[in-house]
Amino acid sequence: MMLPAGKNVTSRFTAGLLKEGRKIIRKFQVKSNQVLSTFGNIQAETPKGSSLSSTLYNIFNSDFPRNDKVLNCLFADDSAILTQGRNIRFIIKTLQSQLDSIEYWCTKWRVAINTDKTKAILFRKGHSSKVLKTLSFMDEDLTWENQVKYFGLIVHIKLSFRKHAKYNSDKFWNKVHMIIPLIGRHSPLSLNNKVILFKQILRPILTYSAPIWCTTAKTHRRKIQTLRNKILRIITNTPWFVRNDVIHKDLKI
């Protein structure tokens, strides 16, 4: 079912099990603007979390196009292809060849690709005024972007991760505002429970994909460290003259 796009339109899929005789048939229903559609049958799927899902996925993708010069990074519906070289024309030609092979594969197995979310990015040193040749995929031209978001990680053409640090900081504070009644200075929760909330909810936001973006400049890492210090002071209600390393040592963080 296709739903019209718009600010006032939201969709939600709900699935359930209905027994018809001995056979269990999975159903789905779409909700848009408080209006529910009729139930439809799910013809092909596996239960969420089933160990069979990964096996079937690997079988289905077993003949995915391969190229010695291209690295395929496949993870469910978020995929990327990577290549490297000293000649930009060679890189673009290699990528275009792989895209053509993937397009043929998708057409053969009836796999739908969202070209609006398909982006191209080139990592390189220095600056160049040359216009990059446009890549084409599924009869659409792919735009060359200065930064892309992949698995929640904002990657810039210079691999500076400054934008990602800013994105992480904003996301962190949005979550802080939601749980501040629980971890704030006037919260009745014990210190141990506050620290547990910090470790389970807040810290994962700051450390997500840290092995990758840790190469960013010290100034950006220092900003993230400052965020952590501030929230730990709020949690412990520590006076200004107590050093941060003392708080870290006491909380074993």
Automatic annotation (TrEMBL):
Residues 1-155 form the Reverse transcriptase domain. The keyword DNA-binding does not apply. It holds the Pfam family RVT_1. The keyword rRNA-binding does not apply. This is RNA-directed DNA polymerase from mobile element jockey. Keywords: Nucleotidyltransferase, RNA-directed DNA polymerase, Transferase. GO terms for molecular function: RNA-directed DNA polymerase activity. InterPro entries: RdDP_mobile_element, RT_dom.
